[in-house]
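Q: Sequence in, structure out?
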Amino acid sequence: MTSAPGRRAYAITGGKGGVGKSTIAVNLAIAQARTGARTLMVDTDLGMADLNLLLGIAPDKSLLDALGGTPIRDVLVGAHGIQLLPALNGSYLLATLGPVGLRRILEMVAELAREFDTLVFDIAAGIGQAQTTFAGATSDTIVVVNPEPLSMADAYACLKVLSVEQGLRHAYIVPNRVVSRAQADELSARLGALVTRFLDLEITALPPIPADPAVSEAAQIGVPLVVHAPDSPAARAITHLTRTLAAAAPTTGRWLRTLAEGVSR
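A: Exactly. Output:
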């Protein structure tokens, strides 16, 4: 099946936990939906899911139910204009899925994807099989990096593994929690220099997200930032980021074909 114009599948990753991946993923998905795109968000932090908390919802079912035979559409839950395919916090079974289980999840997502214009995968921290499988199944990879030294090291490690294991040849970089444009440019330049020197990979810097107290305020009350404080600096930056991505050509061609390739690996 050939993708309709404008269809995109994003993986939001970064290697390190706590860099703001989930916040950017949730708000990017909602911003996409506000443009009129039918948007599906997938929580791929299978055993430590928390997107429902950022969205302020309590799903009755999860991917564990879907793997057990519940129709995948019955697992979806709507919030703020998007559909969420939730995982399950504290699920050892989901956290330890092997290749067969991961393949089945991708097959179910590929089935659902035909009904949506935009997919957003929130990738868990780390560089294990689940993380690289889900990130490798999308048309566009977005790596979040912040000024912490460990964040830079882990972002590079994430790119290295995706390049070697999934054949990634292009990634977007989002500097997050920066205090100035100069700091954002420095982060992108340093990571870019490492990638150019050691990896067969091209990176493109996206508009940065500034440090903003409204981000933690929104998380504490369980309301997405672009809903809670749409005029805050970080919310405006995420909206700008969304428009920038929408204007760019997808890194790979057919997103459903990309998903199918992810399943087959």
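Strands lie at 8-13, 39-43, 77-79, 82-85, 118-122, 140-145, 170-178, 202-205, 209-210.
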